[in-house]
Amino acid sequence: MHRHMTRESFLVLFLIISLMWPIHSEISNCVIKREEERCMERIALHKPKDDENFECPWEWDNLTCWEAASVGEVMKVNCPELFEFMSPEEGLGTISRNCTEFGWSEPYPYYGDACMIGDNTTKPDMYYASVKALYTVGYSTSLVSLIAAMVILCRFRKLHCTRNFIHMNLFVSFILRAISVFIKDGVLYAEEDSDHCFVHTVGCKAVMVFFHYCVMSNYFWLFIEGLYLFTLLVETFFPERRYFYWYTIIGWGTPTICVTIWAVLRLHFDDSGCWDMNDNTALWWVIKGPVVASIMINFVLFIGIIIILVQKLQSPDIGGNESSIYLRLARSTLLLIPLFGIHYTVFAFSPEDFSKRERLVFELGLGSFQGFVVAVLYCFLNGEVQSEIKRKWRSWTVNRYFAVDLKQQRHPSLASSGVNGGTQLSILSKSSSQIRMSSPLAETVNLNLPT
């Protein structure tokens, strides 16, 4: 009787949770399943004969695990882990059950009253929906801008150098990170596969391995960008090509080794669910440790670069008053923060369950736009890139004029438009000479001419 009523209450409560928190209904499934498995393991450790001394045996009521108790004993437990996703910053209550001669009583107070904050129950829905929409827009924007930046850097041969090759690898890591996020959301939280935690599929685990590899590679290429810039400022001459070889090994090889070790250890010691939950802290640090190390080293490099910039800006050769120096320094610092991923240091050492909302905003919300910012700063605002695009546009314009002129020569009837071939040719000659003189070399020659 009591068990049947408990199950009915559970179904009603879970339906309310699913309606109020649709984004995290899949997470709720996994949390309940995980808690049930833990409870079953604890029950299995106690032999059945051990329960003969208790009128109320061990029990899983579909939300909480209850230990065996004697008649008259009152058992109290904290609210299930499921409710922490709904009000992570609020203090949750406790649930009690009496052991009577007829068995367990109904839980009191009711789960909905003790574990859910009435006035705040709609806030998580709006909050998580906003975060999901934010990082979806962010990663989509970054993906489009990064692909465009890659096309530009690959298209122009004059832009092929060690510095831009490093930028291109960073772009690829951001592209892979965005793609992996979309794939992970599609596989783990798709409507047709909402019960992914109940089926331990190989494809689901492979998606998580790919996701962690892409994220880790992105962190390491951010670290390489910082290391490369610091090396440029410190060393006058260094073999860039040889360094690029080691940069590639560090950027793509280190994540491969770490993620492979993590996958093997996870397969042997914690092969549960789709590997999207990291309950085993020791195994998780196989991935988190190198990432935190790269973040902190990048932060040290960032401080070192700022010190070097201060020294260079205060040099008499640069000039300028004190306010202009601080303005340049502030501008340089703000540009370096997204390029080095310095904002990740805020939650680098914090526990996974600490400040979940703020962590989501930083790592998913703001982090999703980082690829867009990097593409703008490293490509679209780059002077060399803009010069090459302008040069290509002028070349295309000249070729277009010549094509029109040749077409008019082949078809004289087209010359009746009011501009004859001679006029067209004279315009081309004039524009062509102006184009040639607009090049940097021509400007240098022109400046050296006697006046």
TrEMBL record:
Residues 38-119, 131-382 form the G-protein coupled receptors family 2 profile domain. This is Pituitary adenylate cyclase-activating polypeptide type I receptor-like. InterPro entries: GPCR_2 (IPR050332), GPCR_2-like_7TM (IPR017981), GPCR_2_extracell_dom_sf (IPR036445), GPCR_2_extracellular_dom (IPR001879), GPCR_2_PACAP_1_rcpt (IPR002285), GPCR_2_secretin-like (IPR000832), GPCR_2_secretin-like_CS (IPR017983). It is found in: Cell membrane. One of its GO terms (biological process) is adenylate cyclase-modulating G protein-coupled receptor signaling pathway. Belongs to the G-protein coupled receptor 2 family. The gene is LOC109081062. It comes from the Eukaryota. The lineage of its organism: Eukaryota, Metazoa, Chordata, Craniata, Vertebrata. GO terms for molecular function: G protein-coupled peptide receptor activity; peptide hormone binding; vasoactive intestinal polypeptide receptor activity. GO terms for cellular component: plasma membrane. It comes from Cyprinus carpio. Keywords: Cell membrane, G-protein coupled receptor, Glycoprotein, Membrane, Receptor, Signal, Transducer, Transmembrane, Transmembrane helix.
